[in-house]
């Protein structure tokens, strides 16, 4: 289940039905309700295939738009799970990295990460807020 | 003395003069003015660009910004308060150079652990501690944004790459690589003539390529209102910049 094309990721690689969307808009705003996201840690919930991609259903923010470091509610495998945004396709301030896919790390209610390893690179900006130290501890690469 | 076949003494032919190729002069003739020095077309007072250039020259005196084009592989070390050892290093291929004056930027792209990452750096940002050119290579286009839709192998560069040694010779080599793309849809319709991309190996059927030509605007290159002749400006600015950097 390796991700080859970030454009239509998990959808095409799943064993069950394959959904190809009729049109894929480019990055408008970062992550809002109903955006499909990519879970990057090695938790079981994020990595087992399902016929629907994980989608955001709520952003814990005054505006409904989530950027790096915001918490969101995901709908994965018929369950609700909180997650932390670690990278999005929308270009941010200069000197910050812009990723080719909307990356997300699954998190519990108290802020502890669900998985045990994060292979994809994580931006350094996340260290600014002290509440993510446990997530950063399991991250391997930084950008 | 020499005797020719006639038997008469031959006229003395002096040996041909040796041609001295002065390599230093050749190097001076080849000059590179960074594109952010050239002011854009507009009705702004040139004094504003003069002040900006003074600041840019001041920054260049303290910090060396090497000559680079789109397609070069660079390694940038920035000061980051949130990084361990307070500095972070990023290696990538330059896909775009934009902005004029002090806000000039360049975008570096690399694929790390199957994840494509792009960072837009500002050339004159004081947080940048070092810019090294690892590989000198111009490409066929000015803008390599199509690498986002190309196969990831074309954007992967080793983070611990050693700088490729190169003599301080003449031209920068042009890599005529034709990049293979992922299946459509792409983020932009790169086959259209408006982007004028020569570095992609289009594997589309002929009918699609012909349909893309419908959007061509062949009158654009003859449009006289769009002409912007920068040769005199460039000469003037080059003299200013080289004098400022000599001190």
From TrEMBL, chain A:
Pfam families assigned to the protein according to its UniProt record, in alphabetical order: Ribosomal_L14 (PF00238)
Family: Belongs to the universal ribosomal protein uL14 family.
Protein name, entry field: Large ribosomal subunit protein uL14m
Keyword list, A-Z: Mitochondrion, Ribonucleoprotein, Ribosomal protein, Signal, Transit peptide
Entry-linked InterPro entries: Ribosomal_uL14, Ribosomal_uL14_sf
A GO MF label: structural constituent of ribosome
GO cellular component, as recorded: mitochondrial inner membrane; ribonucleoprotein complex; ribosome
Signal peptide range: 1-26
Organism of this sequence: Rostratula benghalensis
GO aspect biological process, one term: translation
Location (main, coarse): mitochondrion
Annotated localization: Mitochondrion
UniProt KW Ribonucleoprotein keyword: yes
UniProtKB/TrEMBL annotation, chain B:
Start and end residues of each stretch annotated as Disordered: 1-28
Pfam families with a match to the protein in the record: Ribosomal_L19
Keywords linked to the UniProt accession: Mitochondrion, Ribonucleoprotein, Ribosomal protein, Transit peptide
GO biological process, one term: translation
Origin species: Rostratula benghalensis
Gene Ontology cellular component annotations, sorted alphabetically: mitochondrial large ribosomal subunit
Superkingdom assignment: Eukaryota
Basic and acidic residues bias: start-end ranges: 1-11
Name of protein: Large ribosomal subunit protein bL19m
InterPro entries: Ribosomal_bL19 (IPR001857), Ribosomal_bL19_sf (IPR038657), Translation_prot_SH3-like_sf (IPR008991)
Gene Ontology molecular-function annotations: structural constituent of ribosome
Gene3D superfamilies: 2.30.30.790
Compartment annotation: Mitochondrion
Similarity section: Belongs to the bacterial ribosomal protein bL19 family.
């Amino acid at each position: 289940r390796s991700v080859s094309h970030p454009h239509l990721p998990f959808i095409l690689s799943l064993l069950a039905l394959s959904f190809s969307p009729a049109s894929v808009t480019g990055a408008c705003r970062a992550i809002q309700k109903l955006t499909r996201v990519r879970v990057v840690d090695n938790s079981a919930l994020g990595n087992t295939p399902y016929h629907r991609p994980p989608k955001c259903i709520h952003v814990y923010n005054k505006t409904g738009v989530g950027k790096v470091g915001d918490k969101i509610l995901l709908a994965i495998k018929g369950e609700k799970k909180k997650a932390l945004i670690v990278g999005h396709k929308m270009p941010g301030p200069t000197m910050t990295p812009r990723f080719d896919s909307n990356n997300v790390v699954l998190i519990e209610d108290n802020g502890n990460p669900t998985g045990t390893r994060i292979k994809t690179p994580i931006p350094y900006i996340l260290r600014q807020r002290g509440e993510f130290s446990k997530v950063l501890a399991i991250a391997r690469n930084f950008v | 003395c020499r005797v020719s076949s006639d038997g008469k003494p031959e006229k003395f032919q002096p040996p041909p003069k040796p041609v001295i190729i002065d390599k230093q002069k050749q190097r001076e003739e080849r000059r590179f003015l960074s594109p952010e020095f050239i002011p854009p077309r507009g009705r702004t007072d040139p004094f504003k660009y003069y002040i900006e250039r003074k600041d840019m020259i001041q920054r260049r005196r303290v910090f060396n910004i090497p000559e680079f084009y789109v397609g070069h592989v660079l390694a940038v070390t920035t000061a980051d308060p949130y990084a361990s050892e307070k500095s972070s290093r990023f290696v990538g291929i330059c896909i775009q150079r934009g902005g004029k004056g002090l806000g000039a930027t360049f975008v570096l792209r690399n694929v790390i652990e199957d994840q494509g990452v792009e960072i837009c750096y500002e050339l004159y940002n004081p947080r940048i501690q070092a810019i090294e050119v690892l590989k000198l290579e111009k490409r066929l286009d000015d803008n390599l944004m199509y690498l986002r839709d190309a196969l990831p192998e074309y954007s992967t560069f080793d983070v611990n790459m050693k700088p490729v040694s190169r003599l301080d010779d003449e031209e920068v080599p042009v890599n005529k690589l034709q990049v293979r793309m992922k299946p459509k849809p792409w983020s932009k319709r790169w086959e259209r003539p408006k982007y004028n991309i020569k570095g992609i190996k289009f594997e589309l059927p002929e009918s699609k390529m012909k349909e893309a030509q419908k959007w061509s605007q062949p009158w654009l290159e003859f449009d006289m209102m769009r002409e912007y002749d920068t040769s005199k400006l460039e000469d003037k600015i080059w003299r200013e910049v080289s004098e400022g950097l000599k001190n």
